[in-house]
Amino acid sequence: MICVVLGLQFGDEGKGKVTDFLSDRFDVVVRFNGGGNAGHTVVDEGKTYKFHLLPSGSLRASTVVLGNGMVIDPAALIKEMEGVENLTTRTRVVISKMAHVVTPIHKTLDSKEEQLRGRLSIGTTAQGIGPTYEDKYARTGIRMMDLLDRDIIRDKIETIYRMKEKLLEDTIYSSAAEREKVVEELYQTGRKLGAFLEYSEDLIYNEYRKGSSIIFEGAQGTMLDIDFGMYPYVTSSNALSGALSLGAGFPFRKVNTVMGVVKAYVSRVGAGPFPTELTGAAADHLRDLGHEYGTTTGRPRRVGWLDLPMLKYAIRLNDVDTIALTKLDTLGQMNEINVCTAYYRDGKPLDHIPRTLSESSGLDLRFRSFEPWGKIEPDNDGIMNYEDLPESARNYVEFIEKELGVKVGLISMGESRKSTIDRMKH
Ligand code: GDP
Ligand code: IMO
Ligand code: MG
Asked: Is the separation of the CB atoms in 412 and 18 below 8 Å?
């Protein structure tokens, strides 16, 4: 079985929880995009892990891969690996030689670029993501395999510096000695990570040939995709299912199942259009109920109602087979529950979703309301069955299925692994 799990909204849909839930059915878990901007939460027997670079299957799969499409801060990766007990003794960790390296200089550049954008600033995670992908496409980037050679690291750092000198002139990196410190630190990380570096596309393909099951874990979400999201309020990589072909070197045609993770409402961190956004007391209530604060930055997340037109777009782009619906427990506790079913402008339905701030202003959104289902407690074993959900919650799920024409295969009712209803077994 070859599966891809990815977010259909603005990120933070609960991909980490879903990937971890599924990961004991898979031999290999692969990340293929993004870097430390991702924050994927996994709760295992009460212990909480926040993965930024490691795949969320790292607690249970036998092989985990950080693919070539990722941008990796090697020092952060070493720390993250050390935070998972016995990771490298029980799990084979593979890092693509071709993944690009995020350095402290890229993080400084990220903040500098944000300042310069002024009113167009994106609200990035300041993890150096944009500048590292800029260097990748400028063909000046440092790749993971470069970390094994001090002279190459130095040449590339100096090239990056010459190209970005203006941006760096009032930072510590205008000092040659500081840049040399970065070179040395990167080289030392290379010595620690060298044993994990491989041409991971070969490993993934060999596993496929052997008949291993593989799960690809997308970071971010469809509406943050650099091409199809709400540009420029997006991340710097593609976040669609097809991006795994490029970000892992595995042919998308061989994927059996595309699982789209959908939060029962919507959240977004950072700036940009958000048609169904809530404001005032209702927003504060939903944010508090869902603990909606960024995993990577701690920023309060913007929140709003589920947006079906947006989901239809995401389902089409990703060719979604099944939905994992998360946080149904959270949404049920609201005093009222709405779902956006259509966008209108000047009395006419829109046949596309708004992609820019100006396209999303002056919209007339149509909503359908649902009865709240309140707080749901699992039975004593923590097990939940779909049939035991209140009728109003089932109405919500079935309405979504009908409108989207896609089955809801998993329902997540809490952060822990066992608070999950698996409808794919039937
Ligand atoms: P990701 O980036 O898509 O992996 O999502 P994050 O981990 O950034 O954010 C999702 C948050 O919701 C995390 O704190 C999860 O522990 C939590 N979570 C995931 N699924 C559920 C659920 O069904 N119910 C509740 N209450 N929390 C959930
Ligand atoms: P996961 O994988 C939510 C958002 C940032 C910002 C924009 C660009 O946890 O779902 P970047 O640092 O990538 O240049 O920021 O994208 N963003 C995310 N929002 N979840 C994420 O990842 C995100 N990764 C980036 O908030 O608006
Ligand atoms: Mg997240």
From this structure: yes
